[in-house]
Amino acid sequence: MSDSGGEGGGVSGSAAGQDSEGDGEPPQHVPPLLPESDYAEVEETPGEAAPPSAKRSRMGEEEMGLEEVVESEEKELGEVEESVRVDEEMRAQENLIRPAQTGELLQGEEEVQKGEGAAAIAEGVEECHQNGDEGHEEGETERPEEECSSSRSADSPSVGQHLALDFTHDPQMLTGSWNEYSNFPENYLRGCKWAPDGSCILTNSADNVLRVYNLPPEIYSYAWDLLPEMSPVLRMAEGDTIYDYCWYPNMNSLEPETCFLASSSRDNPVHIWDAFYGEVRASFRPYNHLDELTAAHSLCFSPDGTQLYCGFDKTVRVFYTERPGRDCEERPTVVKKQGQSGIISCLGFSPCQAVYACGSYSRCAGLYSCQDGTLLALLPTRHHGGLTHLLFSPDGNYLYTGGRKDPEILCWDLREPGKVVFSLKRNVTTNQRIYFDLDPSGRYLLSGDTEGVVSVWDTQTAPPDGHEELLQPQLRVQAHWDCTNGISVHPFMPLLATSSGQRQFPWPADSEGDSASDTEGGGAGVSQQEVKQDNTLSLWWAGPLGPPADEDQSTAVLEV
Questions:
Q1: 364 with 412: CB under 8 angstroms?
Q2: Is the CB of residue 218 less than 8 Å from the CB of residue 204?
Q3: pLDDT tens digits, residue range 45-79?
Q4: 108-125 burial: b if 16+ Cβ within 10 Å, else e
Q5: What is the per-residue pLDDT across 388-411, written as a single tens digit (0 to 9) for each?
Q6: Using CB atoms within 10 A of its CB, is residue 491 exposed (0-12), middle (13-18) or buried (19+)?
Q7: Measuring CA to CA, which residue among 337, 242, 324 is closest to residue 286?
Q8: How far is the CA of 243 from the CAs of 7, 39, 82, 309, 342, in angstroms?
Q9: Which of 86, 76, 21 is nearest to 51 (CA)?
Q10: Which of 321, 390, 396 is nearest to 355 (CA)?
Q11: pTM score, two decimals?
């Protein structure tokens, strides 16, 4: 078939060349072998359909009569006139859209804005794209408007979702999980984290089990009165106390290979758990200078997910996500007795720069380069206890830090390292890690405390001059009766997840006195303590209230 096609193409090409030379016309510009789409375009264009008819009239000119020749010439002239008419229409349409392009006539711009001649503009854009230079000019003028409209359409849902957070009223409790943590004594929770795609919640508890909860589908339909108690869909048991855990940042439920998380526990390597089946996919084994397996105290994936950063005593080890095992890069935080000492207890990455922050139990935080781990800045020691959590603002200009047994969350201006913009007051009287979180826009900061109160601060109300002062909370809610240690804001919905509980110590009076006193006084003390215990995962609606029928339900839930 290749031979026959080549011969046919050669014959038609030679014939077309002879005919065009005989008539004094340029050779045909249509190549012999075109895709089907190109053939379709050639057939639809009247000006390019003329050569075949001219070819037939020339071939039969010697045998045809004079009348047939005249008819063929008139037909050819008619086709030429048709092509000229099409060109004139195209130029007229170009004249219609030219004022809107160049902005020379204000009246033309007003007509475009009012929508007059919109169809002519759309047709003119398509035809100008087929006419070379004028098409490029039109594309250049229309591209910014298209980009703006596309950006608005892409940003409008997210902006609306961010603005849906409404803290002018108390959040409404939707559902939660509490029976799951009643089977094990003192099975208090130790934090909760939404998945990056917002499809599920991950919790940590004192029984060393990581649990995954799916987002209830009834939330989307405002059928909040039908919400049952949440039950975990996965349970992943570690061997000992879990130090830290984190999601893979590119996690997407539609791509099962991206659904995994990392966890670190005492005397165990770092485990990578499959979030679909609850099995261990891989492990990263860090060893110390004595070739002994050591556990990481903090974990954090790099923003692109290619590396896993692990915090140790005066050291950060970097593993490559695609290469499990013991191979890693060691980055000491203390060099020649200078730098950041202590156990690296928390890690975080800047969303805008190749910088990561390390918090340590030595009550200070440091900024490091992602390329080689060079210390860029060491923030002053302002906290009263060791750092347990830190977080960058979405624009990367501010860093929030909080510590254990420390009543303040400090906001640092990274453009002037060492400068505290403002502080946030919370009640933390325990060594437990008390998380705080920012909404996706970076406006609201939320944190729990030892008394079970959730506070919401509006960071935009901070003084613009940057004078350090105490920022008052916009809203305070008694979310739990026990320590609210975990809080997480949904990535794109006005939902909050909170976790509560802490280790309870018996009162000294409970172990003193005779059996009668134990029965009377001790029993009363234990019963009072049990009432205070609240080991619960709760889900809250922090957006506008739903249909009017749901308002009565919201007050009823809050009263409970």
A1: no
A2: no
A3: 344 444 443 333 333 444 444 455 445 555 656 66
A4: beebbeeeebeebbeebb
A5: 999 999 999 999 999 999 999 999
A6: middle
A7: 324
A8: 76, 67, 80, 14, 16
A9: 76
A10: 396
A11: 0.67
